[in-house]
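May I ask you to comment on the folded chain given beneath this request?
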Amino acid sequence: LEQALAADPRFLDATLYLGRIYLGGNYFQRARRVAEQALKQAPRDAQVLSLAGFVNLAFRNFQKAQELFTRAIEESPRLGEPRLGMALCQFRFREEAQALTSMLTATLLDPRLSAYQSELGKAFYQTRAFDKALATWDYAAGLDPRDPTPHFYQGIALTDLNRPGEAVQAINRSIALNDNRAVFRSRLLLDRDQSTRNYNLARAYSQLGLGEWALSKATTAVKLDPLNASPHLFLARAYQASNQRVMAWNAESLL
């Protein structure tokens, strides 16, 4: 894509795809530069506006992101992506009813996208429609059997619902689908809310009385991703579950 743009800097499709890759890879500054370039080239293109909205979400500029998603929806009412972004903003502003409507609209416009269904499941969960959330994640898993995200969200929900055995199974499925690495956040890498970021597998294991197993899993997670805060939090909770309180305090102090 970079070579394509070097040959033709006005190749808008290549610009959009490159921006999405940068965003998904956590290269936020590069993504912002690409989005700004695309906006100059096509300021009324709905996909460009949507990309810029997600870039602003990554920088936690929720008000600006919502403005860009609104403009994208006005330009292309049948595009699902900005509806998804709008829902994330509305949840941030605690507008849960509007957020659920936006999320449902996104999934109606693009019903076969697993990522949208995973986010819809979380929207149902945040509005306490637990059965609908679990069913939606099952549907998302059926749409893309290789995506670990719906299994990860199921694990969070099942842990909160005090169903630790099922939670461990769901989380282990998500790990198996993610190259044996724990999944700590959405595949979109854009929705970095605290409920997802602070989730830890140790809680499910501790509910089953398996503190040492939790500790082993947590240690592996830190080794695989030492620069990610979530596995360290996972390790701290695992130490607590195994009654190693001093080690838990040391792990949390690194965050």
Observations:
- Residues 184-199 have pLDDT under 50 and may be disordered.
